[in-house]
């Protein structure tokens, strides 16, 4: 895997547990995402041979380049988790040091690691020593409840041998509140020579362009801004290629939504596909006339044919204005 393929102005789809399954990753790739990452995978669960967890690591050849993301609370477990994930032959690995959710941090994993720069260093060192040949990134926030260890952690991640850094510049205490502070992305670029992937609050193509220009980051990663809006990747590419032209797209989100639904049902089966799809509907239909009615209908219908019918009816009403 050439570093260029990941870090040379590439557009990454962020890992979003519960959303970025195989089906949605492929949709984002189709509309312009360059690099994909799996949802977070527990090193503990891998070590205990949990079958449900192993499914999270599966991907298809057309998803490359793709990284598998692992989380855990010790250097040994994370290195072991990566060893177990190697059988899937991902293009790279990512270590999660940013997850803020209680279940994860109370165990000392995710963003809880940011309280201890020495532990961060030990994890990166162990992974590099155990797996000298792999490409791996580390995904962090700015800190636990302040930025007091930020410079140390960023510097140590480089010194101990990570291939790149992904930064969502909020502290753990902020969860998803307020705005991410992109100055920290620029700061990380000053501190290290390894590539930096900027992440946080890219909701429009303009935000993506602005993150590049304001921070000097090497690649950008988009999460919530891509849910129900996979076109954002192609729109950013269009903007990068022709900065003065208006972004236009010929596809309506509702036709993408219909395709997404069909793919989910085909991949996960009717019942699970419908359940997964319901989470996406508010995002695809945000601000559209009649959306509340459509969402309610989809939340109650249990047959794929009926759901396709209501989507098509809605599509017609949107097209006809
Ligand atoms: C529903 C949801 C699930 C997430 N799951 C993961 C995950 O599995 N691994 C991870 O590193 N980050 C996860 N994140 C964080 C995102 O990858 C990303 O860092 C964060 O949402 C900020 O980027 P955004 O503003 O573009 O969404 C998740 C975020 C959300 C909202």
Could you write a compact summary of the structure shown?
The protein is of the alpha/beta class and 321 residues long. The protein is built from 15 helices and eight strands.
Order of strands side by side in the largest beta sheet? 1-8-7-6-5-4-3-2
| C-alpha Rg (nearest Å) | 20 Å
Report the biggest beta sheet as strand number plus sense, adding barrel if it closes.
Answer: 8 strands, parallel
Q: What is the distance, rounded to the nearest whole angstrom, between the alpha carbons of the first and last residues? A: 47 Å
- Kindly report the average pLDDT value: 96
Indicate the CATH topology of the largest domain: TIM Barrel
Beta-strand share of residues: 5-15%
Count of DSSP E strands?
Answer: 8
Q: What would the principal axes of the Cα set say about the shape? A: globular
């Amino acid at each position: 895997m050439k570093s260029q393929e990941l870090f040379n102005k590439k557009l990454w789809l962020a890992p979003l547990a519960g959303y970025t399954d195989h089906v949605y990753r492929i949709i984002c790739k189709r509309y312009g995402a360059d690099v994909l990452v799996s949802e977070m995978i527990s090193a503990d669960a891998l070590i205990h041979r949990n079958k449900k967890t192993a499914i999270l690591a599966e991907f298809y050849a057309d998803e490359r380049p793709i990284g598998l993301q692992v989380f855990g609370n010790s250097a040994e477990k994370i290195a072991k988790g990566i060893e177990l994930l190697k059988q899937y032959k991902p293009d790279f690995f990512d270590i999660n040091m940013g997850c803020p959710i209680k279940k994860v941090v109370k165990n000392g994993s995710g963003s809880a690691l940011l309280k201890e720069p020495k532990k961060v260093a030990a994890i990166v060192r162990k992974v590099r020593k155990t797996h000298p040949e792999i490409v791996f990134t580390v995904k962090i926030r700015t800190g636990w409840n302040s930025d007091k260890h930020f410079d140390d952690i960023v510097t140590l991640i480089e010194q101990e041998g990570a291939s790149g850094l992904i930064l969502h510049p909020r502290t753990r205490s902020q969860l998803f509140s307020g705005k991410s502070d992109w100055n920290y992305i620029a700061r990380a670029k000053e501190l290290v020579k390894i590539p930096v992937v900027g992440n946080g609050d890219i909701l429009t193509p303009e935000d993506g362009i602005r993150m590049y220009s304001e921070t000097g980051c090497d690649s950008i990663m988009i999460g919530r801004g891509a849910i129900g809006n996979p076109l954002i990747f192609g729109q950013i590419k269009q903007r990068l290629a022709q900065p003065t032209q208006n972004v236009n797209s010929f596809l309506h989100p509702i036709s993408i939504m219909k395709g997404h639904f069909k793919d989910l049902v085909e991949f996960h089966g009717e019942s699970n596909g419908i359940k997964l799809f319901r989470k996406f509907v508010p995002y695809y239909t945000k601000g559209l006339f009649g959306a509340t009615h459509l969402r309610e209908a989809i939340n109650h219908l249990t047959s794929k044919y009926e759901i396709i019918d209501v989507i098509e009816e809605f599509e017609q009403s949107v097209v006809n204005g």
